[in-house]
Design a protein that fits this description.
This protein is mostly helical. The protein is 42% helix and 6% strand. It has a single domain, classed as Arc Repressor Mutant, subunit A (Orthogonal Bundle), CATH 1.10.10. The chain is built from three helices and two strands. The structure holds FE2/S2 (inorganic) cluster. FE2/S2 (inorganic) cluster binds next to loops.
């Protein structure tokens, strides 16, 4: 799926860039800017940022154990609201 039409970045490109960054440094903080740089591209209009970040979050949280997901909301996965 195309995520950034300006730079021609797909969700698979984002996944590959994050995998590569995590392999190089598992403690690296992954940002949209770092993903663009890893892919050798740069954003233009910024209209994709919400979708871009959502794709990054989905990819990054896929690596987390289930108990560590949703910690930002102050509860563990599977607990009610
Ligand atoms: S669509 Fe991504 S910068 Fe324009």
């Amino acid at each position: 799926m195309i995520v950034c039409s300006c730079a021609g970045i797909t969700s698979a490109d984002i996944r590959a860039a994050i995998t590569w960054m995590r392999a190089a440094d598992p403690t690296a903080i992954v940002t949209p800017g770092k993903v663009y740089r890893a892919l050798g591209r740069s954003p233009e209009c910024g209209g994709c940022m919400r979708l871009f970040v959502n794709n990054m979050r989905a990819e990054l949280s896929a690596d987390l154990p289930p108990d560590l997901r949703d910690m930002r909301r102050g509860r563990k996965s599977g607990e009610g609201p």
